[in-house]
Amino acid sequence: MLAVRVLLSARGLAAASVVRCQKHTLPDLPYDYNALEPVISTDIMKLHHSKHHQTYVNNLNVAEEKLAEAHAKGDVSTVISLAPALRFNGGGHINHTIFWQNLSPDGGEPSGDLMAAINRDFGSLDNMKSQLSAATVAVQGSGWGWLGLNKQKGVLQIATCPNQDPLEATTGLVPLFGIDVWEHAYYLQYKNVRPDYVNAIWKVANWKDISARFAAASK
Amino acid sequence: MNALLPAIKFNGGGHLNHTIFWTNMAPNGGGEPSGPVADAINKEFGSFQAFKDRFSAASVGVKGSGWGWLGYCPKGDKVAVATCQNQDPLELTHGLVPLLGLDVWEHAYYLQYKNLRADYVKAFFNVINWANVNERYENARKAAGH
Questions:
Q1: What residue ranges do the domains of chain A occupy?
Q2: B130 in Cβ contact with B34 (< 8 Å)
Q3: What per-residue confidence (pLDDT) applies to A17?
Q4: Cβ of A54 under 8 Å from any chain B Cβ?
Q5: What is the pLDDT along chain B (146 residues), one digit of tens a residue?
Q6: Contact call for residues B85 and A141 (beta carbons, < 8 A)
Q7: CB contact under 8 A, B111 and A188
Q8: Which CATH class is domain A112-218?
Q9: Higher-confidence residue: A42 or B3?
Q10: Which residue of B has its CA nearest to A143?
Q11: Can you give the residue ranges of the Manganese/iron superoxide dismutase N-terminal domain (chain A) (predicted)?
């Protein structure tokens, strides 16, 4: 190890040090793996968090390390070639970090301000829920359904993203509530019946977290 | 009409792909291929193992839902490995005639293999119906005038 470090250029070493400080880690769940039963099974939560999300974190770190090396060498071609891996794994890390907070065994109700915005932009909470559910179920392949805030227009909007494309970087909307519809998010429990999963997930929506995100984004 | 095109591609592609998939597998399948497609594989990839490695890496590497394919390129009269997202049909997407497909949508393996897509891809080689792949290869070559 020491010999390798001596061989590294000063710039390369500096870049490597920067990357080491910024290594991403898997965030803890705010609850136990079984906390969202019977809506989302323990088995799914364990695999989803400790395997799938962990893999995005690991691969994001690898991609960022390669990015730092390429950047230090001035290798623009490699920098560009890393974009898909950064988007996929970075998006996966961002999305799932939000997701675990977006869910709760006792998520309460929307705040007064959020409820007012929902009523204004969708007519009612039920309308918003059915629109987001429909859009999310209709995602072709892997992806996410989102309730987001359009800051420029000051309105709530529904959007979907394919794969792990992160909402804000892709659409400019601030993510408030996301529903993961990659099959790994529901298949063990709901099999092919995605609509049942999407309808059920509202029972564990963490309105306290969603309201807090809305408040922060509305400043 | 325009609004229907994505649904036609998605569901039409899904129907095409799965119809091919069921014929690509057999209970007594697997092993090393023989016949014309084996020759084509050796010519293009150097060896069956090299093809296996390439096909496996491509299939495991699909980001999200999609398929790994061995296809036939009519212009070059050769075989190639390619991947498609979601249910995008191979011929429409890459201009290759589908010979052998591997579904890597999570529904294809998750109940059994969970997140371990690589294990599923490895096991797939035990059920490949090489007679069917050969039949598709020969038909594709004929259709291309070879």
A1: 4-102, 112-218
A2: yes
A3: 47
A4: no
A5: 788 999 999 999 999 999 999 999 999 999 999 999 999 999 999 999 999 999 999 999 999 999 999 999 999 999 999 999 999 999 999 999 999 999 999 999 999 999 999 999 999 999 999 999 999 999 999 999 99
A6: yes
A7: yes
A8: alpha beta
A9: A42
A10: B64
A11: 23-104
Q: Which of A84, A140, A187 sits opposite B110 (nearest CB)?
A: A187
CA angle in degrees (0–180, nearest 5) for A18-A61-A145 = 125
Contact (CB<8Å) A51/B85: no
Q: Considering the domain A4-102 in this protein, what is its CATH number?
A: 1.10.287.990
What ipTM score was computed for the predicted complex, to two decimals? Answer: 0.94
How many other β-carbons are positioned within 10 Å of the β-carbon of residue B7?
A: 11
**Quick one: tokens of B25?**
């597998």
Which single residue is written with the structure tokens 């709530």? A156
Q: How does pLDDT run across A109-165, given as a tens digit for each residue?
A: 999 999 999 999 999 999 999 999 999 999 999 999 999 999 999 999 999 999 999
Q: Omega of the bond prior to A110 within 30 degrees of 0, cis?
A: no
The C-alpha angle A87, A214, A36, rounded to 5 degrees, equals 75
Per DSSP, the residues of B67-103 read EEEEEEETTTTEEEEEEEETT--HHHHHS-EEEEEEE
pLDDT of residue A6: 43
Distance CA B87, CA B97 (A): 15
What is the distance between the alpha carbons of residues A95 and A56, in angstroms, rounded to a whole number?
A: 10
Structure tokens at B89: 């049909």
Q: In what order do the strands lie in the sheet with B66-73?
A: B78-85, B66-73, B97-103
Run of H or E residues at A155: strand A155-162
Helix (H) or strand (E) holding A158: strand A155-162
| Strand-pair category, A174-180 with A143-150 | antiparallel
